[in-house]
Specification:
It contains ten helices and eight strands.
């Protein structure tokens, strides 16, 4: 009997170790300056000895690295290589970037590309404005769905069931005085965004920042990513938002086509 149960126990232990190792990677990735061994252990509820064993294994494979000067563990080169493998497989950034440059030149403002991941969106690439005062979002940064332009662009295509699920899990954290914290108001805003084909972040994520965003679709006419134009409210007036929104929508359509994607309108025409 022992010989029959031990392989199962071994596999269970291996899966647990893998899960913990991935959790270590994730928590370090969420803290770009890196984290101490104590910080990682506390964040994950692990014994320091367990955390250290996982870290040294990840270090051997170059997924993490140790900075002796700061005593911090940081993301390693192999994690970057692995992430690049994902980008290469989708080819999203390389296809979108020429369009993003044209968007920046046409609008004069910073352009961002983001994908949805779970109940957040993650910035994948950015083309910065040439203006002295401009927006910067580091690739890899996560932003909430309910109060960011790219997030609301993805969220506006969800049905009420999915929206309610996200709200029940994450709530509607108030980041500024303009953040939508009432679910009914948010749903009305998302319905309007769907009708006009672009979403607006009117200082809802950060004071003094406005943003418009539209959706890029995959080959199944499902949301793949969102592209946005963002800048200071001093330059992006309320009157300018609809114009920039149409620009974001038109370029999102072009990126969709370049990727071989289809919009819901394309699918409707076929039917």
């Amino acid at each position: 009997m022992a010989s029959e149960t031990s392989p199962t126990k071994s596999r269970t232990g291996q899966v647990q170790s893998l899960t913990r190792a991935l959790s270590v990677l994730n928590v370090i990735a969420e803290n770009p300056p890196g984290m101490t061994l104590t910080g990682i252990s506390r964040a994950l509820g692990l014994a320091p000895s367990t955390s250290h064993r996982l870290l040294t294994t990840l270090q051997e494979e170059r997924y993490v690295q140790y900075d002796r000067d700061s005593s911090h563990w940081q993301i390693g080169m192999q994690a970057f290589v692995t992430g690049n493998g994902f980008l290469s497989s989708r080819d999203l950034v390389s296809v979108a970037r020429p369009f993003m440059r044209r968007m920046m030149e046409e609008s004069g403002e910073t352009v961002n590309l983001a994908i949805s991941e779970g109940d957040d969106v993650i910035y994948m690439a950015q083309v910065e404005s040439r203006e002295m005062m401009r927006v910067y979002s580091k690739p890899g940064n996560r932003v909430p769905l309910h109060c960011s332009g790219v997030g609301k662009a993805i969220m506006m295509l969800m049905d009420d069931t999915d929206i309610d699920r996200i709200i029940s899990l994450r709530g509607l954290p108030k980041l500024t005085e303009k953040t939508f914290t009432d679910s009914d108001r948010l749903k009305r805003e998302l319905l309007q965004s769907r009708r006009q084909r672009f979403a607006i972040d009117d200082e809802e994520h950060a004071v003094g920042l406005r943003c418009v965003a539209s959706v890029i679709y995959d080959e199944y006419a499902e949301p793949l990513a969102a592209v946005s134009i963002s800048g200071p409210a001093a330059r992006i007036s309320a009157e300018r938002l609809p114009v920039l929104g149409q620009t974001a929508f038109q370029f999102a359509q072009e990126i969709t086509a370049a990727l071989g994607g289809r919009t819901p309108a394309d699918v409707a025409d076929v039917k």
